[in-house]
Amino acid sequence: MATIKQVAKHANVSVATVSRVMNKSGYVSEEAKEAVEQAIAELNYAPNRVARSLYKKSSNLIGLIMPDITNPFFPQLARAIEDVANQHGYQVVLCNTDEQLEKEQTYLVALQTMHVDGLIITTNHSHNPNYETLDLPMVALDRIVKAGIDAVVSDGYEGGKLAADTLLKRGATRLAHIAGPDHLKTVKRRTEGFVEVAGDKLVGMTESTFTFKDALKASQQLFDHAWPFDGIFAANDVIAAAVLQEAVRRHIRVPEELQVIGYDGIELGEMTSPPLTTIVQPIYEMGRVATERLLDLIEKKDTRPKEMLLPVTLLERQTTKREER
Amino acid sequence: MATIKQVAKHANVSVATVSRVMNKSGYVSEEAKEAVEQAIAELNYAPNRVARSLYKKSSNLIGLIMPDITNPFFPQLARAIEDVANQHGYQVVLCNTDEQLEKEQTYLVALQTMHVDGLIITTNHSHNPNYETLDLPMVALDRIVKAGIDAVVSDGYEGGKLAADTLLKRGATRLAHIAGPDHLKTVKRRTEGFVEVAGDKLVGMTESTFTFKDALKASQQLFDHAWPFDGIFAANDVIAAAVLQEAVRRHIRVPEELQVIGYDGIELGEMTSPPLTTIVQPIYEMGRVATERLLDLIEKKDTRPKEMLLPVTLLERQTTKREER
DNA sequence: TCTTGATATGTAACCGGTTACACATTAAGA
DNA sequence: TCTTAATGTGTAACCGGTTACATATCAAGA
């Protein structure tokens, strides 16, 4: 790789002039500019970002901290973040923390010492001391870390209500629910919204993590103890897929005997049999908004922290009945 | 963040001494060592990786180039890579190229100018001129870029044979197949293996991309034109899920009337109804091996290029019949 | 003609590490 | 006692950019 010195020599100017034409800063004569541009082209020169970072104290890198990219909700988020970052000349560093504070801490110092310009956090520890001392632009995604940190979340409460409402409208009279992990505020809201609208129609409820195995166990337990119910809302699509599988195993017909609604809108819902009706979070959009916000923060366009609440929608596939009109 | 100078002053030594104790290089007295260590602790010092990179021309960063993290095969790979990299003090930069040469090229210069130490490539252009001129350690994963570049792949040929063999053993007599995209060599091998063993039992075959929508179309077409068949092998699990969904829609009983085998062993296969029998690639293992190999390359432990072929296994779930004994 | 501000360009300091080199000091061996 | 090698430490150059500052030229306005 050529250096700026070589370019300068090649174009018969000083390094300062080369730097000026690259950054379009200061005064440069047309003549010099052309010479430099030609030299750059001829030497196939691209400036060393490490050197630039050192002086500028900015790396055009953003850190993406998530529990586990393997969880099917996150890839879309990561994709959106990467897309937007890339469009603005940033790269993203991927960090899987498994929600372990220690891993998180390790990543945080690594990220800091490499001078990332900002952080997107998809993690849960609202009390996490790691972030408090951190003087870095950051935005929380799908999680609420603490007041004072920007957050982008979708409207889980409305989503929960929408799920209950839909089930009721489609003629369900005995509702069940599988909630997500208790420590996730954004997930809890779904349950709250659902319970609120379900009222005394709610006949069974349990809780599960977001792994399929756990979800399957929870489903079995629910079917064993709370059956019969004719409408069920799962806190996410993975859990809904487990419910579906368990229903098939028990020869319960979906949606005739049991209507099922999931939450998230991940691709998985399209692939189940029958395809899953679900409350769609605008996942890609959330990633996009969060990244754009972070970029604004980095460029100091706006520093008042705020929470962005994105709307959810119902996607009717085939685990709910057609609405009668 | 403290700098090495501050640490040096605090410990009453020179920066060289501080550097020496941090890197355990050269001679340092016990006394000086303790003073420095205490200063580091008190100032909460961590060396600036950017500065270190500039001098060392090595960033402890590795670039991960993949088509689309949203494709359910890749997150596990990414996870493995990230895990191993992290264990060795490296971070990974995520790049989604959508298989577009232009994006790839952009990433490549970005990655080079930030002095990544190596590349893991999960992409397809065997003729890709971008990589030829690149003087960087790299390993191709699940893809064969060209001779001379290390590659880690699973044994698709054996996998295809295993699928046909299994179907035949379980009593299928009329076989069908949906192949993957033609330009993926590693995927083509699955088809070759399958066709070889299926022989004249093969009654229908078509091709599909790895998106669910396309797979659904391909399935429908196959059912329309080649039915009846009683065993089908799909080039990956997403396609198999589509076949399954279409079979359910047509009230074809699986596995009684039709046995289905997928390929990959992604989590999705666990979530379909019924759960999918599939040929499992050791995905995480592949990511691990590739990354360890890359790290060896970076540290110049071994430079002879080689291709690593990992074995696949059959995972029997419920879309195939139990073997009669 | 003289002053002044806009234009143009180069030199060198700086960012925060690493390390070559010079220079002590000390201990072991002759 | 004199060499010599091992040990210990500091100074400064270096990595490849950016930019403050000094300097020079030139045209416009007084």
From TrEMBL, chains A, B:
Keywords of this entry: DNA-binding, Repressor, Transcription, Transcription regulation
Domain HTH lacI-type: 2-56
Pfam families noted in UniProt: LacI, Peripla_BP_3
SUPFAM superfamilies: lambda repressor-like DNA-binding domains, Periplasmic binding protein-like I
GO MF annotation, one: DNA binding
Highest taxon above the source species: Bacteria
Protein name: LacI family DNA-binding transcriptional regulator
Organism field: Exiguobacterium aestuarii
